[in-house]
Amino acid sequence: MRAGPPLTSAVGLYADFRRQGYDFFAGVPCSGLKAFIEDLQADPALPFLPAPREDVALAMAAGAAMAGRKPLVYLQSSGLGHLVNPITSLLKPYGIRIHLLISLRTQPFEHFEMHRIAGPLLELLEYGDYTIVEEPACDA
């Protein structure tokens, strides 16, 4: 999947990504990606790799990509700012492809601004390898 209109649910996304060949998943959990994360945890073929920060997840995924894996990083939009430097100084210069699965958050209220600028920020970074899930229930 590539950038496009936001999805309204994470249901079935894990199976879709596995069908596309993604075989390494790391990220920062969010309730808006609950269905995706539950499916990931239930798959005995792959380890569940939660990360304390988005840049840590991206670093693990970059290592996996260099080892020949097809990685995906899942995150909340509130953490997208943590990826600006790794995208511009690691992924883009070295041609490393990592798909981002981003849950847009509007609650609590302090996350609204990142929700508002997530798309424009990715455009500014010229990073088009992402999927956005926008769920009103994403609040944790």
Structure explained in plain terms:
By secondary structure, this protein is of the alpha/beta class. It has a domain of 75 residues: Rossmann fold, CATH 3.40.50.970. 38% of the residues lie in helices and 16% in strands. It has 5 helices and 5 strands. A 5-stranded parallel β-sheet has the order 2-1-3-4-5, with helices on one face. The longest helix has 13 residues. The protein is globular, with a radius of gyration of 14 Å. The chain starts with 12 loop residues before the first helix and ends in a 6-residue tail after the last strand. The model has no long low-confidence stretch (mean pLDDT 89).
- SS content category: alpha/beta
CATH class of the domain at 17-73 and 84-101: Alpha Beta
Q: Mind telling me which CATH architecture of the domain at 17-73 and 84-101 this is?
A: 3-Layer(aba) Sandwich
Q: Strand order within the widest sheet?
A: 2-1-3-4-5
Number of DSSP strands?
5
Estimate what percentage of residues fall within beta strands: 15-25%
Percent helix:
25-40%
Radius of gyration: 14 Å
